[in-house]
Amino acid sequence: MATPGPLRRAYHWSAAHAPWSAWAWRNTALVAASIPVAVPAMLALAYTFSDPGHLLKTLGCVLLLRPLLTLLQRSRLWSLAGLDIPKIPWAHRWYHPHGILPRLRAESTWRQYGYHLLVSPLTALGGALVVLGWAAGAGCALVYSWVWALPEDYRPPGWTEQYTAFTVLGVVLLIATPWIAALIAHFDNRAATVLLGPNRAKELERRVEDLAESRADILDAADLERRRIERDLHDGAQQRLVSLAMNLGIARATLTDLPPEARAVIDEAHREAKEAIEELSNLVRGLHPAVLEDRGLDAAISGIAARAPFPVALTVDLPERPAPTVEAVAYFVVSETLANVAKHARATRCSVQVRRRAQLLTITVGDNGVGGADPAGGTGLLGLRKRVGSVDGTIRINSPHGGPTVITVELPCGL
């Protein structure tokens, strides 16, 4: 037994696009409603064509009526087609002294001119044809229902065959008119979206700028939060551990008459406290070292190089300090890269070069290790790439097997 699916779909499609369907009447109402809105523009065009010297008067008239016409068109499209055309943002209202010239110079104003003077009259003419098509189609299709009212003298010989042809013509018009209305409505929607609304390229550019600013604010907030955590750990937990270690040291030095088991416990607790202080110091230094905020990137990177288990040739050329967020990322890049070299590269020496030229901070880290660094092979280089990308930076890794490895990072300082 054949499935009724295709037949049912064909039936539903035909019903949805029939002359009596909501689709047909919605498109008809949309294009018919464009007729009264286009009357001012059509009168202005007729006035201009009667005498080309009236062009400036026409443009001035349309300029004064443009906000009202745009509002009416947006309302028509929203209420009848569900098309929401965003408003064009302006710094001042049109009647403000600083609001007239920007509107005259803006390309959006001339796009709206194009819609009101070209598209709107064409849509109105199409709407008139659609209304005429409905009226003519209904009159011809129903000719047999009203022809009896005509006097006999108006019925020529063979009128039955002629009225049958009128009926067929009327049915064809009733079937074709909704599609003509749909075509005009589609043209009107596309033209209104392009000409009445904001420029999509500029809107996307503005959106990108807003996103860049919001991302910069988020990065600054995250950097401030790291600094707050660093201060809390340094001034709170670390100081308590230092006090605990001192008390344990005093107890070990003064309580000499304790049993060996108790002294062993105190010694162990003292050693654990000192190790906890060292681990917490490393953690605080990794979050946001105080020297980075106080003395800048040069001093902070020098501290990293001094703690490395191999010689590090350090070159820092910074005519001026970059933004705090960029400094934090640069510090993280050098710290993480040297840590990776110490863990995996089996290198005996390393070089770090930090230079700023205009608005670009370049960091180059090279070693004489075994090479073969792969960003997909672990989380270290992947995290490095993400951290650099958070400020629109770039990273290049050149690490052939057998070495050497050179990592180049470029960070924009204008963040």
From TrEMBL:
Keyword ATP-binding found: yes
The reaction(s) this protein catalyses: ATP + protein L-histidine = ADP + protein N-phospho-L-histidine
Pfam families, A to Z: HATPase_c (PF02518), HisKA_3 (PF07730), Sensor (PF13796)
GO molecular function: kinase activity
UniProt cross-references to InterPro entries, sorted A to Z: HATPase_C_sf, HATPase_dom, Put_sensor_dom, Sensor_HK_TwoCompSys, Sig_transdc_His_kin_sub3_dim/P
EC annotation from Swiss-Prot or TrEMBL: 2.7.13.3
Keywords: ATP-binding, Kinase, Membrane, Nucleotide-binding, Phosphoprotein, Transferase, Transmembrane, Transmembrane helix, Two-component regulatory system
Top EC group: transferase
Domain named Signal transduction histidine kinase subgroup 3 dimerisation and phosphoacceptor: residues: 225-292
Histidine kinase/HSP90-like ATPase domain mapped to chain residues: 331-412
Domain Putative sensor: 59-196
Membrane-spanning segments: 29-49, 113-144, 164-185
Full protein name: histidine kinase
